[in-house]
Amino acid sequence: MSADLWNPFMEFAARFAKAVDLDAEEYNYKLALAERLRKTRELYLNRDPEWFEALRRDISSSNLMNQYFMMRLIELGRSKPGDLRQVIDLLWDGEPDVRHIDDFTALLRPYNPEQFSVGGVVGFASILLLTRDPYTYPPYRARAVKKFLKLVGWEDRGANGDPARRYELLLESLDELIRLAPEYGIKLRDRLDAQGLMWTVLNVDPADEWNSTESAAFRAWRGDKVTAEDVSEPGRSGFSKAPEVESTARLLLSAGLRGEPSPMDGSTSTWTSEAAADLASRIANPDVGTGSLMSKLERQLATASRETVLLAAELLYLQVLPLSNVTPATKIARIEKVLSWVPGAAVELSAELRKGLEAPGAFNGGVGFNIQVADHLGWLTRFVEHVTEQPMSLIKAALEDPWKFIELTRGVPKDWPTIRYSIDYLAWPGYLQPVVKKDHRIKIRNAFADIIGGPTGDSETDIAKDLHHIRQAQQDESSDFIEWYREPYLSEWQPSGEDAGQRAWLVRQNQGGIAMLDSWLQGEFVSTRAQHLGSPKPGSSYDQVQAAVNAGYQHIDYSERKARAQEYYRFLSQMKVDDFVLTAFESSLYLGVVTGEAEYVDDETSRLRRSVAWRKKPLENGDLPAPMPRLLEEQGSVVDLTDGLSVVSAWYAEEEPGEVPPEEEPIVQPQIAVVPQLRDATPELAAKLHVERDDVQEVIRLLQTRQQIVFYGPPGTGKTYLAGKIARFLAGEEHGDHVKTVQFHPSYAYEDFFEGYRPAKTEGDNVGFSLEPGPLRRIAAEASLDGNRDKPYFLIIDEMNRGNLAKIFGELYFLLEYRDQGINLQYNPQQTFVLPPNLFIIGTMNTSDRSIAMVDAAIRRRFAFVELHPQDGMISGMLERFLAANGKPSLRAELLNALNSEIEATNRDLMIGPSYFMKPHAESDQGLAEIWKYELLPLLEEQYFGRLNRDKVREKFGLAAMRRKAGVGVGPVDLSLQPGHESASAGDATVGPRSESDETEA
Q: Is the N or C terminus of the chain more exposed, i.e. has fewer CB atoms within 10 Å?
């Protein structure tokens, strides 16, 4: 019986072996993977700490592991690399032995029994064995292997047995395939070759040479699920992301492309040249006043025919249908609004069309799909016009072939790639993917191209085909849709922090003395001259662009070459489709959206271009909101305005004042950087700090207006303690991480505080230098993140006057005074840095260490100085309030007052603060004596060095002398600590505020 079952498999295999290049599709990429894994095993055996990350990259770049298994494996490898190593040792240490797979499974599965299925673990084991000998140990994929064994009648030989037996059975079946191959004219070299052929038979669709009968017979034998839809629309088999969305989109697109009545009302033909031309002329009419998209569209469609309004409803339906970031209620309300304008018989959304809008979307369209609805509607209208101009043979071909459909949409005038990619996906969801950013499509293809033997080309069709074939390989036998925007795939094509999202740019229109505005507006592009640049590709690295500039612009100064490189790098590689672009002319700003990739043209005034959809109506360039005035003043021909993206986005989507269309979902805009309103001091805070509320409120007002203050005073006055407590109160207890502390010292420098080069490991295990951020740069970056810009951040600089401030701050002095401006950095001259307005700085200065009279005037002008002195201001009376609040005698306060009164008025900066006496052990006579002996007297000896000898200092300032001066006899400091006192206990020693020792002051 088994022999009979092998026969149809081998016959079908013979056909595939002739039609499919098995080396390109299967064999070569597995050998390449085995070679990469061999190098990773060397890292593993040498105990290189990077071994797991190398293994992760190797496996993620293949199609050999289920994504959920892979995610759990990554978690294990990063959290418990030692445990995972014990498991892998079974297959990578010593001679390879298939029998070890049983122990391998027993060790690995307990870490995640749900995701680490037996089949998945055997598959992982086979990948590790592939490293040892790919010709002997091919990959194991559970579902494919079980299906294969069932087709050939071998499933009863151990397909569901112990882990090792499952893999052994695969090897035995491949050996049988090799034995039978010559009888059917098939040449197989080894088990890896046989595994590739087996996988091809189970997963690849029949070629065009197969007639429908043969194809149906094969699919039936293989057990494919063939639906009526597959028969009526050939080639639509594939992987589905959002079935309800895709089926309703197909309903509209198929009807429109075939010229059938609209599914909206079932009787009106809408995809006609007349309706499309009418809709195009109406939405191009700007003379309908201001207002929201929908209110303007309603005025534009007034008096329009039934065909035109229904077409508008269909196209808006297709635009919003696949979006996952728009709510179903918003989608439905938008389409029903347009349908309410249809003249004649009323039109209601059918249950099927409503179901599509209610279903989860296929991709997140971001800000672009929300604010560019009018532009997308314009492209869709041009698409319909383009369709009506094509012969029916071409339309039929596009309906039967996804690659022909791409050619159809590529032919639409005034391309808008994001909506075009969306329509491509909706028309052919099994083949064309819901990735609507071109740079993302290229990155994904390039990151995983090894799976299919490398990229096939760089045209739109080449990239789309590569993505489809990669997905076919990655999907494996799993029914789970692969999400490129989730792990474990995301980090493979988009390293952390690489994607900056939507940006905004200023491109100056006067370039080289030539005014370009009219050319830009009429030609719908933006450009830079780049006449000597050469032709570095879009997406080139900064170093590649710099090399091209150096080669082409040798006649200009090197500093200007650096500026040109930055300009061209931004235009070529950082600017992306859907970014905003502005240009200024006289008192106006012109705003547009980038719609195309960078390209070179034969025009010496504007050789490097990007197509742009310009808004014809300019904005007034006056009284602009922050931070736009600062950004527009920055130097350069191409300036990054992303810090003002929220302002630019609002301009682009500007509506009638006060008009908020109820059917529109609010667009979440990036936050504007602002000086947050700090909360008022509370009585509870004042009581906790043992100061007056008015004094704390005055400090908060200074922070609000100046943003930079310094607490200065003698030791023990609680400067760092108060700075930390006030900062954490203002940041909010839930945002304790918004407060950072750094301490200056004589060797501290700009490179430590802001950024500098530090030794780092480079490629090839060599030691080099990398530019690393310091604490100020790190907290500034965190405060500038979208979502943080309305929250206060605090940097506390302790012992500020111990450092060389001019050396530490460098050019940052400028930013301390001019918070609304940027400056080019010492180690990053091509980058402009701004101190975010929500970053507050609190410095502390100990006047006994180094007189603040020595602090230069530049720092004095940039900070508000708040004195903390034991006899004046906020600190005066602190110890008395602390003792009273805790029910303690006043002896410690009397001793402190006596000590400070003994210190001459001329030595005001040498007086002692209260925190020494607020420590728990200051409550006993022994503790007080130790504080005096080991902390205060050594400090006073140093301060009076050269004026009083050691004995005189102790005689003048000793504890006994201070007790006499305070007029109190020798007795317990705290009556509650006397033996026999009713409240005496070890737990009665109240801990007050942190001592000055927490400031790390002397």
A: N
Q: Is the pLDDT of residue 782 over 60?
A: yes
* Amino acid in the structure at residue 224: D
- The answer to whether 197 and 13 have CB atoms below 8 angstroms apart is yes
Q: Can you tell me the distance from the alpha carbon of 36 to that of 24, in angstroms, rounded to the nearest whole number?
A: 18
Half-sphere exposure of 979 (CA within 13 A, CB side): 0
Task: For residue range 172-189, list pLDDT tens digits in order.
Answer: 999 999 999 999 999 999
Distances (CA, A) of 122 to 128, 202, 901: 10, 20, 82
Per 3-state DSSP, what percentage of the chain is helix, strand, and coil (rounded to 5)? 55, 10, 35
d(CA 749, CA 273): 70
CA angle 431, 437, 441 (to 5 degrees): 50
Integer Cα distance of 433 and 466 in angstroms: 11
- Summary mean pLDDT of the chain: 85
Residue 233: Cβ within 10 Å count: 15
At residue 199, φ and ψ (nearest 5 deg) are -65, -40
Which amino acid, one-letter code, is at 935?
E
Cβ atoms of 762 and 784 within 8 Å: the answer is no
CA distances from 5 to 130, 153, 210 (A): 29, 6, 22
Contact of 56 with 156, CB cutoff 8 Å: no
864 neighbors 711 (Cβ within 8 angstroms)? no
615 touches 591 (CB < 8 A): yes
Q: Before 746, cis peptide (omega within 30)?
A: no
Give the rounded distance of the alpha carbon of 799 from its chain centre: 36
Q: Judging by beta carbons within 10 Å of its beta carbon (0-12, 13-18, 19+), is residue 623 exposed, middle or buried?
A: exposed
- How far is the C-alpha of 458 from the C-alpha of 463, rounded, in Å? 6
Tokens of 805: 């401030």
- 719 in Cβ contact with 713 (< 8 Å): yes
Q: Is 840 helix (H, G, I), strand (E, B) or coil?
A: strand
Using CB atoms within 10 Å of the CB of residue 890, give its burial: 0 to 12 exposed, 13 to 18 middle, 19+ buried: middle
Structure tokens given for 814? 């400028």
- The strand pairing partners of 620, in sequence order, are 588
Distance, CA of 224 to chain centre: 40
Angle between helices 328-339 and 293-300 (to 10 degrees): 20
Query: Mapping DSSP to helix (H, G, I), strand (E, B) and coil, where does residue 66 land?
Result: coil
Phi/psi at 741 (5° precision)? -125, 140
Number of helical H runs and strand E runs in the chain: 46, 19
- Contact by Cβ (8 Å): 665, 327: yes
Alpha-carbon distance 334 to 329, whole Å?
9
At residue 476, does pLDDT exceed 80? Answer: no
Check if the beta carbon of residue 694 is closer than 8 Å to that of residue 973. Answer: no
**Cα–Cα distance for residue pair 925/923, rounded to 1 Å:** 7
pTM above 0.70, yes or no: no
> Between helices 273-283 and 306-320, what is the axis angle to 10°?
70
Confidence class of residue 968 from pLDDT cuts 50, 70 and 90? Answer: low
The confidence band for 939, taking pLDDT boundaries of 50, 70 and 90, is confident
Distance CA 292, CA 370 (A): 12
Which helix (H) or strand (E) covers residue 584, if one does?
strand 580-585
Amino acid letter at 830? Q
If DSSP states are collapsed to H, E and C, what string results for 405-421? HHHHHHCCCCCCHHHHH
HSE at residue 965, side-chain half, CA atoms within 13 A, is: 20
Residue type, 582: L
Collapsing DSSP states into helix, strand and coil, what is residue 777?
helix
Say how far apart CA 726 and CA 722 lie, in whole Å.
Answer: 6
In the beta sheet, which residues pair with residue 619?
589
The amino acid present at 116, given as its one-letter code, is: F
Report the side by side order of strands in the sheet with 739-743. Answer: 739-743, 793-798, 839-846, 708-713, 864-867
Contact (CB, 8 A) for 478 and 66: yes
